[in-house]
């Protein structure tokens, strides 16, 4: 049998032989090859290439580089073992190699790849290895998690209790692991310091000097951190770590004595207790709660008390009457018993037992005849504050002893009218009720008052209590004055109302009872003369003889008084306004019925309506008839009569009429706007002339000019006398002198030291009086006629204050010190010579003027001073 290897070798030699023959027979062509630049070069045949595992996908990691001996262009190729992952891709022309898959050294640290170069005829392939270098991309991994460790509480300090192990698959410093305990804030952080943890070996120990205590903490949760040594990852230094929680369960051991629960202990012996009565039960348990031992109880006593050794119930052995002390402090011992019956650890506590009275009596209220729970009293309203209610005799008692007989007294009722004394009682006390708020005890608000008197125990668990009703019947007194429904009343009544007409009804009420509540009415005041009031009903009427006229007086105010039978009263003010009626016809001024009209200038006629209010006193003027017609116009508001605009000379007038004396009669009507309306008709004679200059009049007719001047002077004198007379008449009525200008006074001498500044004093004859600070207004139009310029109608004022009498004249004023003449139209007041002093002294006008001026000046100085 021939060897198969030998036959194959022969076949190979034959192939080589024929190949050599073909090479020699044809032109020689050499295969391309790679450059071998070594492992540190980034181009060549890619042999021994080192590549970091954190190289990003898509990175150009290498360039295949080779050549063809004949200079033919070459192409590069790359293949992998069948079934293996393809990590790289090569560009066939440029030879650039690109990473197309993520690298992971821990999964595959070496990659085998076939690289090839071809010139089209020959292809050369080489197998190369690419080594994946480590990067610090892995965290330390704990081998056993979660970890639970059971440690007996009596483990000695410094003992090892657990070994922690973590593995990092990185190499170098990135694969080295150190350990430490993580400390967090809060209560758990304090438990970490019970343990020590060397960083390299990972062994957890109880720290020297520390011990575990099951009774304080049964479980400890420890966070262990494993950290690598750090390394480069994606060009940066990176340290990675992981943590795990270690649960340490402390196992209880028999090292704690028994514990009494619910201390301190207090027990009580009551007056009804008997031998064998349960006083108190103590409760003890083993301090080692996971494996407790049985507990037995014992007592150290002098034969008064006994205890059940199993249940811990303390009982009385004698009657309470045999006890010689009020308080007993007894020692109770609780001992552990081992399964063998041996006494182990023990604990001792004190039980305080107090002998007390039994709280079996509630507080009780007593009257004069024994226990009572309703007390009644009759008294007048508004008793003095601080006074005690004498008609109440109340005693309160609690038959118990000590703290059981201590209780509070409290009075419950409307408001804070009454107060109880005392407020804290021990055993027994006399109850006193004091008046706290006298005003609240009002018969008009409530005719009887009901209160609850409470007695409540303070320091007892039963909180026994008792109540008693206190009923107070109030008697009325005359403690209220009548009260009007309003502080003031406003009424309006037409003028010319017949006597006895009703004006307004006032109402006042008195809440008191009986005769004290009967109200009588009366009126008084300076404005009450024309009115009367019905004393029972409060209806105010005009006097039977009263005649109301707005033009005389339009406003009245007075007081109305409401009074009860004992003289208690209240006041209200009444304001009455007299409403104007249209009861006057316009009246022409007789002096204006004959007029001389200069062509181009108007003449004015005037009528006055004595009604007081608009529109009753508003006058309209009209021309009813004239001869010839259509020659005059009249202003309906002012009464000015003018010639028609086309009449500009006497020639035109003479052409219109045959009347050569140029005097015409015009029938003019004055009509008011009231309802119903009244009118008056008068004939006005108008003499029409042309304007004549003064110089021509003197030359042509000097006597006529002289007569004209004399006439003007006479008219001025007449007007002066007329105005003076009017002023005198007004001042006699109103006792007021109202000059139209300031009164001028010369420089005064030094003031006298009086209570008021002295505005008047004696001076030499001919000295004028002036006061630069005093403005005296002119008199208003009394009827407020709208045809007079500057007149206005005032709206009704707000309710005025009560009338006040003017202050008396100063004591140093003397009527005879200075005399004054009646002021003229220029409002100058000149002093007269002493020759006429006797006559001036008796002049009432002078006296009124001086009094008025002095009074006004003193009032002004008083206002400035205060």
TrEMBL record:
Family annotation (Gene3D superfamilies): Cadherins
Identify the keywords attached in UniProt to this record, alphabetized.
Answer: Calcium, Cell adhesion, Glycoprotein, Membrane, Receptor, Repeat, Signal, Transmembrane, Transmembrane helix
Residues annotated as transmembrane: 705-729
Name all Cadherin domain ranges: 51-142, 143-260, 261-365, 371-484, 485-588, 590-704
Q: Name one GO biological process term.
A: anatomical structure morphogenesis
Q: Name one GO molecular function term.
A: calcium ion binding
Under SUPFAM superfamilies, the record lists:
Cadherin-like
Major location category of this protein: membrane
Query: Where does the protein end up?
Result: Membrane
Topology with respect to the bilayer: Single-pass membrane protein
A GO term from the CC aspect: plasma membrane
Entries under Pfam families matching the protein = Cadherin
Q: Which PANTHER family match?
A: CADHERIN-87A, CADHERIN-RELATED FAMILY MEMBER 1
Put simply, this protein is called: Photoreceptor cadherin
